[in-house]
Amino acid sequence: MSIETLHIPTPDGRADAFAAFPDDGTQHPGVLMYPDGFGIRPVLREMALELAGHGYSVLVPNPFYRHGPAPVVELPEHIGEDVRPALFARLMPLIEAHTAERALSDADAFLRFLTSRPEVAAGPVAVTGYCVGGLLAMRAAAAHPGEVAAVAAFHGPVGVDGPGLFSRLTARVHLGHAEGDMTPEALAELNRSLDAAGVDHTSEIYPGTVHGFTMSDTDAFSASGLKRHWDRLLPLLERALAGGQGSGPVAGPEYTAS
Asked: Per-residue pLDDT for 45 more than 90?
């Protein structure tokens, strides 16, 4: 697998990004991966490499490029509960400034860039995201119904935009909720809204997890939650994108899907 640092032209400037590609010299289905609120950092590179190892060309942009290149705020190697509140105090203004209009403008630019890459096969793409990136992924999929065939969001505030967003989705959807974020009653209400909109979806609470459970550089990390995430994400992509041709996982054991 290989990683390439990139800059994506947008109406508001150049967004820094990176891409992870299988290095077999052939084209592979494209996946746009939105990071969580902490942004691009080593754990996102590991996850993108893992996905590339299954036969996908993966683009990971910095959603907060308007405020500077990633990391937009200085991050420790491990994000513990002792530093999380102070980090979020600095990040929340950036997240709040990232309006729906900005998100849609960026999604246009990111998807156009992804599908123009020579490493990306013709045909539909997928979008995935974590934390606030899950909401960005859902907005991107809803705005590009003819292009995005699958969308997955993990521990993200996906219900913020309500049924209006769901009604525009044509992609297959998987939502992986943290137990600490979603009650069974709230899940049932969310799933009724998805059903009413005719969305082909799976939506479930991952047992024993808290917000941020996929990120191994945080205290929220759950090895079982991350495994469940891969166990749901990879079949979704295979069904929607006719499968990758990767030889299997390439990262450490904690990132293995099997």
From this structure: yes
**How far is Cα 134 from Cα 139, in angstroms, rounded to an integer?**
9
Query: Between 36 and 253, whose confidence is greater?
Result: 36
Q: Is 245 strand, coil or helix?
A: coil
Query: What Rg do the C-alpha atoms of the chain give, in angstroms?
Result: 17
Omega of the bond prior to 71 within 30 degrees of 0, cis? yes
CA torsion 236→238→244→246, rounded to 10°?
80
Secondary structure percentages of the chain, helix, strand, coil, to 5:
35, 20, 40
Minimal CA–CA distance to 251: which of 214, 218, 201? 214
Measure Cα distances from 63 to 67, 116, 179 in Å.
9, 19, 26
- Here the tokens at position 93 are 């203004």
Q: Read off the tokens for 46.
A: 């590991």
First CA to last CA across the chain, in angstroms?
Answer: 19
Span 100-156, pLDDT tens digits = 999 999 999 999 999 999 999 999 999 999 999 999 999 999 999 989 999 999 999
Sheet bearing 30-34, strands edge to edge: 2-10, 13-21, 57-61, 30-34, 125-130, 148-154, 172-178, 201-206
**Shortest CA distance to 38 belongs to which of 1, 81, 86, 75?**
75
pLDDT at 248: 39
In this structure, what token pair is assigned to residue 110? 């990111």
CATH class of 2-255: alpha beta
Which pLDDT score is estimated for 254?
30
pLDDT band at 243 (very low <50, low <70, confident <90, very high): low
